[in-house]
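Example (one chain per record):
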Amino acid sequence: MAQDAFTPQPIELTRETSHDLGVCFDPENIILQGFYTDEISAYRARRLWSQTLSAHFLLDPEHDFNFQILGNPENAQYTLTCKFVTACGRYAFWRITNHQAPEVQYVIETAHIPICHSRHEDILCAPDLHSIHEKPLILSSGELSEMLFPKPNRKFSSWLKKILSVPFITLRNYCS
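Predicted structure:
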């Protein structure tokens, strides 16, 4: 009887699921996304992201990266998306997401928070930049060894054994 009560039931999703607040990145599409509860925070973040990317990486806001703000006032969800377009922009994205520019990462994570004494705890508790993917970008030692040293292909190994079993004199006569 206990098994009947816990049988899985299919569900139908009728709306998009909400993201956690904070900033995440998508390494495949080379974008940063910030999720905020109000429109002012999204626009404040856009201004500071643009200033920071221009100052630290000498990127041109009209050429190297593009911003888009999408909002849903009913659910209090606003999304700031920054897409890096040029090679310089992609390199800046790589540095931000691989902990090579911690000062820029900090500004991007806290850009939506006004700087004042009353918001000090909000700045300290701002969520860290994270990937939208479940898997970490850094491979574990097992995955890395499988990638670097794949299991041998049986067809290739049997072909190689056949080649090595042929006497050297036969190969020499065949090649000349």
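Caption: The domain at 22-131 is CATH 3.30.70 (Alpha-Beta Plaits).
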